[in-house]
Amino acid sequence: MDITSVILDTTDPATAEAFYAALGLRDRVRLRPAGAPSSGFRGFTLSLVVSRPATVDAFVAAAAKAGAEVLKQPAKSLWGYGGSFRAPDGSAWTVASSSKKNNGEPDLAFDDLVLLLGVDDVKASKQFYTEHGLEVGKSFGGKYAEFETAGIKLAVQPRRAAAKNAGVDAAGSGSHGITIVGDAGAFTDPDGFVWETTDGVG
Q: Residue 140 class from Cβ within 10 Å (0-12 exposed, 13-18 middle, 19+ buried)?
């Protein structure tokens, strides 16, 4: 199963375009003028998985320079090293490395782009997505599930946990402001996340 890109709604397409170009993400992140209104946490995070702490620092610094609000300054944790920021379009991003040691020069290269959906019921979401042809890669009961997808990786987690990981309040309402594009089909999941087929996107 392939997720080729995500489309993010924004009230300022020109600023968002420049922002994602600065981070080298325009091949995976597409933009369109915002439609339905939303407020607060939009119910998902996008995560860049990178090889070393210096790359985390480089991404967060580049994001801040391009207009992002830094939510969590990069720091060590039990699992590695990471930070987070809110992009100009309002989406929350995390950048993380499982390594705590640097073994090369900083750059803006990432190993994986992960879309983490904050959901009401992880088990129900897992069942829904498996019924739509996605294969579960990792699963930890009602706490987390990760699917085997190419391009952009997909995972689900309780909404509150997803927000906490990014350093934002879990409160929010209205549109998610994201459309997931891939070959799973065109549908809306139980939490209101919209999927479109690659052929159906202009």
A: exposed
Mean pLDDT by 10 residues, the chain (202 residues): 96 96 95 89 97 95 97 93 96 95 84 97 97 94 95 97 96 95 95 89 53
Q: At what angle do helices 13-22 and 53-65 cross, to 10 degrees?
A: 150
Domain holding 44, by residue range, is 2-200
Closest CA to 29 of 62, 7, 3, 49: 7
CATH code for the domain of 142: 3.10.180.10
Buried/exposed code over 12-46 (b: 16+ C-beta within 10 A; e: otherwise): eeebbbebbebbebeebbbbeebeeebeebbbbbb
User: For residues 179 and 4, what is the distance between their CA atoms, to the nearest angstrom?
Assistant: 11
Q: Whole-angstrom distance between the N-terminal and C-terminal Cα of the chain?
A: 21
Domain count, the chain: 1
Half-sphere exposure of 169 (CA within 13 A, CB side): 5
Q: Would you say 26 and 4 are in contact if contact means Cβ atoms under 8 Å apart?
A: no
Residue 180 CA, chain-centre distance (Å), reads: 11
Closest CA to 13 of 87, 94, 108: 87
Tokens at 165, concatenated:
């990981």
